[in-house]
Model the fold of this input.
Amino acid sequence: MAIDPARPRAVRVLTGLLVATAAATVGVELLNFWYAPEHGWGLGVRTAWALLRTLGWLILIWHVRRARAVAKPLGLILAVTTVFAVGRLVVPQTGAPPAPGLAGIALLTVLCLAVVVLLYRHPTVQEHLVQQPNRIVFSREGVSWRPAVPKRPPVTAWLIAARVSAFTYGPLMLVPCLIAVGQLGERPQWILAVVFWFAAGIGVSYILLLISYFLLRGRIWARLLVVWLTFVALAIDLPLCRILLGTDGLIRDGAPLAAAALLTLYSLWRAGRGASGGPAPSGSEEAAAPPERSRR
Done:
């Protein structure tokens, strides 16, 4: 079934809500930076990473407009990690957080919650995200504009969620690592630990990129490897956050990785349950299954 050029009203509302969420993210981050009592290296890195995260909302808008099923897990992960990333900027190391910052994070939380509800609960949006987008198709009859037939078999939505969530491990490890670089002037004896931290973040990203191909094809060993990499990332990141950045850094920079790890493990668990009882494809079963031939 082709995608209507005039998208459904719920999809247009979702697109506008995503634009508002991206704008609110930038506004709250700049507001927190303005009210921060100290503008040190750590705050600069956290603010830059939060601003870079805004690009994720723009990518999500593109996926929604293209009716891609990956929009649902991507939206969930962006909503969770954005609240964590912006929330850690609101609370200062000492003293009470400013009232404008609390109001901004409350607004952002409501927007992120509304995005998740629309993505996962609204029937029109769910129907839109399982359609196959129109593409230019070349055939013997000529050039036509019709829904493209997927080249890969249907993939469970929870496996897509696990893949997208696991991809955040590397960046979430590199952000506190870069913040710890600012501590080396006072604690130069930890330079090898910071170098190892940086190399581990890069290594985890590349390994997950390689095994994600097999993860989406239902390989059991790929799931187990993702689970082990999750525990390895936590075992490296959380202790170093505590040692080099203190309890404040553990809460601000370790909590987002812990949240992403829990989401990955839960998604893998749900995908395993679906596999044991019959996988639920991320796209429409009717669109993915070949038409039945009549028998006489």
